[in-house]
């Protein structure tokens, strides 16, 4: 057999092998190539975070009251090639900075899903996010302290009169009040996942000074800080 014939046999064998591999792993390759890819970010500026007004029924005064508050939202986007189905955003851990400079788990915190923004009743699992599209998920909000007091809202231990409280927008408000964060430095670990997409973990460091500012830019400079950290 001459060299040309040997080359032809070899090329044919390689082509057959490649065809067999493609047939064997075609679905796996297709799944990886056309899968959803979920990302999450918080920018301390509109539209992710902004000042607004909250209307609440006061059971004592038996009337609706309006007061200033700040909302903080996570922008979840699908950067993949397939629609993400049944998407959820889950707060898995809360840590607080101690006097020794180390962040330690808050044992009383109950891990839960967050609520998707602008949904009524609140959605915990959004139906889906198409490729190239995104949606806001409520992270938390801060009510002006005097307005909060007038509404007889619960106050966690460690809070002082006139100081701000960050209320995490969890799927339910636990009786432990562990969703209410008083001034200090914290780290929140959040997992974003879908029925057809594995979880992506994010970590945000939150510095709550306890100060309230009517001016939005000053509030975001001196009242609260939110910084994305690399998950270890």
Question: Secondary-structure element order, as H and E?
Answer: HEEEEEEEEEHEEEEHE
- Morphology: elongated
Biggest sheet, in brief? 7 strands, antiparallel
Measured between the Cα atoms of the first and last residue, the distance is: 60 Å
Percentage of residues in strands: 35-45%
Q: Please count the beta strands (DSSP E, at least 2 residues each).
A: 14
The number of helices is 3
Mean pLDDT score: 88
Q: If you compute it from the alpha carbons, what radius of gyration comes out, rounded to the nearest whole angstrom? A: 25 Å
Low-confidence stretches: none
Q: What structural category arises from helix and sheet content?
A: alpha+beta
- Helix amount: 10-25%
Tally of distinct domains:
1
Descriptive notes:
By secondary structure, this protein is an alpha+beta fold. It has one domain (34-229). It is 19% helix and 43% strand. It is built from 3 helices and 14 strands. The chain has helices at residues 3-33, 145-150, 216-223; strands at 38-41, 49-58, 63-78, 84-97, 103-105, 112-113, 115-116, 126-129, 134-143, 166-168, 180-181, 184-194, 197-208, 224-229. Strands 1, 2, 3, 7, 9, 10 and 11 form a 7-stranded antiparallel β-sheet that branches. Strands 4, 5, 6, 8, 12, 13 and 14 form a 7-stranded antiparallel β-sheet that branches. The longest helix is centred in the first third of the chain and has 31 residues, at 3-33. The chain starts with a helix and ends with a strand. The mean pLDDT is 88. The chain crosses the membrane at residues 6-25. Keywords: Membrane, Transmembrane, Transmembrane helix.
